[in-house]
Design brief:
The complex is a heterodimer of chains A (261) and B (425).
Chain A lengths: L6 E6 L3 E7 L4 E8 L4 H10 L5 E5 L3 H8 L6 H8 L8 E6 L4 E6 L5 E7 L7 H10 L4 H5 L16 H13 L4 H23 L4 E5 L6 H11 L12 H14 L8
Helix pairs in contact in A: 3-9, 4-6, 4-7, 7-8
Chain B lengths: L5 H7 L3 H20 L8 H9 L4 H11 L4 E4 L6 H6 L3 E4 L8 H4 L9 H11 L4 H5 L2 E5 L3 H10 L5 E4 L7 H22 L5 H24 L9 H10 L5 H20 L11 E6 L8 H7 L4 E6 L4 H4 L10 H12 L11 H13 L4 E7 L3 H16 L4 E6 L6 H15 L2
Parallel strand pairs in B: 1-2, 1-3, 3-4, 5-6, 5-7, 7-8
Helix pairs in contact in B: 3-12, 10-16, 11-13, 17-18
The chains are: A alpha/beta (261), B alpha/beta (425).
Chain lengths: 261, 425
C-alpha cells in the first residue's frame, strides 16, 4: 500500500517563515515562525519538524533554501497566484501586503498571472510601517490590527517615509492629538499609498487581500471603501505563499511512484 | 593582462591604485558573468581576449596610431558618424560609462539625482581611471538628453570637448540641422587631423562602417531561431565591443562568429533549450561593463534574443549608401541613415514603438523587458507608450527602472523570476 505523496512549500519572508505540507487535497501541516537574524538556522529547525517528498521555496529568502536544501524556487508572485486558486478560482486581483513589500497580481480565469507590480524599494505601505507605528502609539501589533475606529476626518500625515512618519507621529502626540485619530490617519495614509497600485492592475473580478497585513480589520474596511467593492480575505491570508509553493511542489511529484514506508 | 602596462598607464596620468581596483573588479565580474556560461561559440574567445586587454593592448594601439600622426576621437553617442573619423584616418572610440565608479568625484560636479551613465563618465574622467579619455585628442558630446546637454556645459572645462547639436524633431528643418552639424563636424575633424576628407576617403569610411554593421547584423539575425545559437550576454558584448575595437579586425572576428552561429542553427545547436523563455530587452543603452540586468535575466531561466537599444539594434539598423560624387552628397547619405535612429530624445518617436513590436515578433520573443536608468526622463516617459503598444500587440512586458548599484538585486531577481514564470509556455 502506498502512502500519499507529501509536498512541502516554504515561504521565507522578511519577518516570518511559513511552512505548509500538502498531499494533493489537504494541507496537513501549517506553521508560522518569526524570522531571526539567522534565517538559515530558523529554516533548518522548521524543516527538521517534517518529512516530505518534494520541497519548493518562495519569498525573499528562497535562495537560502535553494542552496542549503537543493530545492527549486518559485517567485512569490506565482506562489500567491496558485495559493489563492483553490479558495478563489475565478479571475481575481491579489493584493499581498507583507512584512517589507507589497504586491498586486492580476490572475486570469485559468489561474495564470497576467500582470503584476511590486513596491519593494521602500517600507511605506508595508507591514513594517504598521509595526513601527503601533510601537510609537503604544499598541501591540494585534491591537493595532483590530482597532475599532469610526470614520472621521483624518489628520494629515505628510510623510510617505516610515522613518519620517514616525517622527511626525511623535510630534502629533506631543501636541496632544488623540491616539485613535492618529491611528486612523496612519491607516488612511497606507490606503493612499497602496490603492493606486491596486487600481493600476485591477480591471475586474474579485479582489483578494493576502499577507500578514490582511489581518488588519480597519485596513480591510478602508480598502473596501476606497475600491468600492467587497474585498475577500482567505482563511489564512499569511500562508498563501506557502500554500502556492506546496501545490506547485506537489505537481512535480504527483505522477511519480512512491514506495510505502 | 599580458604585458605590464603600468608604465603606459603612469605616463597617461592614471591614478594607478584606483585603476588597479577597477581592473580587479572588472576581471572578477567578467569571470563570474561571462566565463561561467556554458557552450559559448568558439569565436567568443576573441572577445574574452579583447576584454582582458581593454585597458592594455587597445590603448597601446591608440598610442601607436597617435605616434603615426593619427588622431583619437572619443565619442558617446551613436549619432556621431564613425565614417567621418575613418575618412580622416582617425580612430573613433566610444566611451563607456557603464560602471558605478568615481561617483563621489562626479557628485562634486553633478546633482546626486543624475543618471548613472552620466555620473559614470564624469567619474571615469575625473578620477583618472580611464585611459581612453587620457589617450583621446578630442571628446565629442552631443545635445541629446537634458542630462547630457547640461553635463557637457560643465565637462567642457574639464576636457577638450566638441558638442554637436541635434534636432528635437524629425522634420525637414531637423534634417537640415543635422546635415549642417555633420558638415561642421567634418570640417572640425579635418582641422584636428590636418587631413582633407575626400570622396574616396569618405566612401572608404562608409564601407568599413557598413561592413561592421553587416557583420553584427548577421549574428543578431541568427538569434531569431529557436534554439538560439548565442547567449544574450554574448550578443550584448559583441554590441558593446563594437564601439571601441579596431573596426576591420572586429568585423572579421564577428563574421567568424556569424559563420559559427549559422552552423549551429543548421544543427539545431542552441545555447539554451527550445523551451527556454525568450526575451527582448529594450530601452536605455548598456555600456561596458554594465551586465547587471542581462545577467539577472539569463540566470533566472530565460535567454535574451535581442537588444533594442543604441548598444544594439539602433547602432546597426540600416546602412549608409556609398553612391555619390561629392563629399556633400555622401554627407547627405550619412544623414539619410542617421536621421532614422529612433532614440527617445526625439519627439515624436513612433518608429521606436513599431520597431519594438516588430523585433519582438521577428525574434519570436515571449516577452519584452523594458530597461531604463533612474532619472532618464526620455526613456522612462516613453515607457508608457511602449506599454500601450505592446499591450495592444499582446506582448507581455516587464518594466525595470534601475541604476548601476547592487542595492536592488533582490528586487530585480524577484520581478524577473516572476515575469519568466508568467511567460513560460
Amino acid at each position: 500500500m502506498t502512502r500519499p505523496k507529501i509536498a512541502a512549500g516554504i515561504d521565507v519572508g522578511s519577518r516570518t517563515i511559513k511552512l505548509v505540507l500538502y498531499d494533493g487535497s489537504h494541507f496537513l501541516f501549517e506553521k508560522i515562525v518569526d524570522n531571526t537574524y539567522n534565517t538559515a538556522e530558523s529554516i533548518k529547525e522548521l524543516l527538521g519538524e517534517v518529512k516530505y517528498d518534494a520541497l519548493i521555496a518562495a519569498g525573499y529568502g528562497r535562495t537560502l533554501v535553494e542552496i542549503g536544501w537543493d530545492a527549486p524556487t518559485v517567485s512569490e508572485i506565482t506562489a500567491f497566484a496558485i495559493g489563492c486558486s483553490q479558495e478563489f478560482p475565478r479571475k481575481k486581483t491579489i493584493l499581498d501586503m507583507g512584512g517589507q513589500d507589497t504586491k498586486v497580481i492580476r490572475v486570469n480565469d485559468a489561474g495564470k498571472v497576467v500582470k503584476f507590480e511590486m513596491n519593494d524599494r521602500c517600507a511605506a505601505g508595508t507591514g513594517k510601517f504598521f509595526e513601527v507605528m503601533a510601537k510609537t502609539l503604544n499598541y501591540t501589533l494585534d491591537e493595532f490590527a483590530s482597532l475599532r475606529i469610526t470614520e472621521r476626518d483624518p489628520l494629515k500625515i505628510n510623510s510617505l517615509c516610515t522613518v519620517f512618519a514616525e517622527s511626525e507621529v511623535i510630534s502629533l502626540l506631543a501636541r496632544g492629538e488623540n491616539r485613535e485619530d492618529i491611528a486612523y490617519a496612519l491607516h488612511k495614509s497606507v490606503v493612499n499609498k497602496v490603492s493606486p497600485l491596486l487600481k493600476k492592475i485591477y480591471d475586474s473580478g474579485d479582489i483578494i487581500f493576502c499577507g500578514g497585513c490582511a489581518k488588519n480589520s480597519l485596513l480591510h474596511a478602508l480598502l473596501e471603501k476606497e475600491m468600492g467593492q467587497k474585498i475577500l480575505i482567505p482563511k489564512s491570508p499569511q500562508l498563501i505563499g506557502a500554500y502556492g509553493a506546496s501545490i506547485i511542489a506537489f505537481n512535480t511529484i504527483r505522477n511519480q511512484p512512491v514506495d510505502s514506508k | 593582462m599580458g604585458e605590464d602596462w603600468k608604465p603606459m598607464w603612469k605616463e597617461l596620468g592614471l591614478d594607478l591604485k584606483a585603476h588597479d581596483e577597477l581592473l580587479s573588479v572588472l576581471v572578477k565580474f567578467y569571470n563570474d558573468i561571462f566565463m561561467s556560461q556554458k557552450d559559448r561559440p568558439q569565436g567568443m574567445v576573441y572577445f574574452d581576449f579583447v576584454m582582458s586587454e581593454v585597458h592594455g593592448l587597445r590603448i597601446k594601439e591608440l598610442l601607436d596610431a597617435k605616434a603615426q600622426g593619427r588622431k583619437v576621437i572619443a565619442t558617446f553617442c551613436v549619432y556621431i558618424p564613425e565614417e567621418i573619423a575613418l575618412a580622416a584616418d582617425a580612430v573613433q572610440v566610444g566611451l563607456c560609462g557603464g560602471a558605478e565608479i568615481g561617483f563621489n568625484v562626479a557628485e562634486k560636479y553633478l546633482p546626486r539625482n543624475t543618471c548613472s551613465l552620466i555620473k559614470s563618465f564624469f567619474g571615469f574622467s575625473q578620477a583618472k581611471i580611464c585611459p581612453y579619455f587620457e589617450a583621446s585628442d578630442i571628446v565629442v558630446g552631443e545635445n541629446t538628453c537634458d542630462g547630457k546637454k547640461k553635463a557637457y556645459e560643465i565637462f567642457k572645462d574639464l576636457r577638450n570637448l566638441y558638442v554637436m547639436d541635434l534636432p528635437n524633431m524629425k522634420h525637414d528643418l531637423g534634417r537640415e540641422l543635422l546635415k549642417n552639424e555633420y558638415l561642421k563636424y567634418l570640417q572640425m575633424i579635418e582641422k584636428l587631423t590636418g587631413k582633407k576628407i575626400t570622396v574616396e576617403s569618405l566612401k572608404k569610411g562608409i564601407q568599413i562602417s557598413n561592413e561592421k554593421r553587416k557583420a553584427i547584423s548577421r549574428v543578431m539575425d541568427l538569434r531569431k531561431y529557436n534554439p538560439t545559437p548565442i547567449s544574450g550576454k554574448d550578443g550584448l558584448l559583441i554590441n558593446q565591443v563594437a564601439f571601441y575595437d579596431d573596426p576591420i579586425r572586429f568585423t572579421a572576428s564577428v563574421n567568424k562568429i556569424a559563420d559559427e552561429c549559422e552552423k549551429r542553427v543548421k544543427e539545431h545547436h542552441g545555447v539554451a533549450s527550445k523551451e527556454t523563455p525568450r526575451i527582448l530587452v529594450s530601452g536605455c543603452p548598456m555600456a561596458v561593463p554594465n551586465w547587471k540586468v542581462p545577467h539577472v535575466i539569463e540566470t533566472n531561466g530565460a535567454v535574451i534574443v535581442g537588444e533594442e537599444s543604441c548598444v544594439g539594434m539602433r547602432n546597426i539598423r540600416n546602412l549608409v549608401s556609398d553612391k555619390g560624387n561629392t563629399v556633400d552628397q555622401l554627407v547627405d547619405n550619412l544623414v539619410d541613415r542617421y536621421f532614422k535612429i529612433d532614440c527617445a530624445v526625439f519627439t515624436p518617436n513612433k518608429d521606436r514603438l513599431d520597431h519594438i513590436a516588430q523585433m519582438a515578433k521577428d525574434l519570436k520573443a515571449d516577452g519584452v523587458v523594458h530597461y531604463t536608468l533612474q532619472f532618464c526622463t526620455p526613456y522612462n516617459m516613453e515607457s508608457h507608450l511602449v506599454e500601450n503598444t505592446l499591450s495592444k500587440a499582446g506582448i507581455p512586458l516587464l518594466k525595470i527602472e534601475t541604476d548601476y548599484s547592487m542595492e536592488d538585486m533582490g528586487q530585480l531577481n524577484t520581478r524577473v523570476q516572476a515575469f519568466v514564470e508568467m511567460i513560460k509556455k
